[in-house]
Write a structure and sequence with these properties.
It contains two helices and six strands. It has helices at 18-25, 105-116, and strands spanning 50-55, 74-79, 90-93, 99-102, 120-125, 131-136. The relative contact order is 0.25.
């Protein structure tokens, strides 16, 4: 498994319920929600959540009108289960809704399952155009 894939450990993670995942990561649970509390960031510029993935934007050629994302830009990740090509698709878009592409299929599988279970995720563009994906287990 290369660095583009989920750092937390393969497909077995997707089968874990979020409370079990939180307990395994040593995160406290939010009262009533059954979800972990977010980690307190050292500074307001630090991204929220747990960094779980480093990847890239696939299918960029399908959105030629969209400018390439810039380092430091925050991007929204949205599940797209109705996509016939891949029902586990995770779409990458700007906060305004402009589509940029998708996460590659293999790393998106586990992330899609976590998002379907209620976790939110966002991506931050690093130098060289790589995406750092952060999982937000509680609001």
């Amino acid at each position: 498994m290369d660095r583009r894939h989920l750092l937390l450990g393969g497909g077995a993670l997707a089968a874990l319920p979020l409370p079990a995942l939180a307990a395994g990561l040593g995160l406290p649970l939010a009262a009533g929600a059954g979800l972990p509390l977010p980690a307190r960031a050292a500074s307001s510029s630090a991204p929220p959540g747990l960094r779980v993935l480093e990847s890239y934007i696939a299918s960029r050629d399908r959105f030629p009108a969209a400018d390439a994302p810039r380092p430091g830009e925050r991007l929204r990740l949205t599940r797209e289960p109705e996509r016939a090509f891949d029902p586990l698709s995770v779409r990458v878009e700007r906060p305004c809704g402009a589509r940029l592409g998708y996460l590659p299929a293999q790393p998106a599988q586990v992330l899609a399952a976590l998002m379907d279970a209620g976790a939110a995720a966002e991506a931050h563009v690093a130098e060289g155009g790589r995406l750092h994906v952060y999982l937000q287990l509680a609001a």
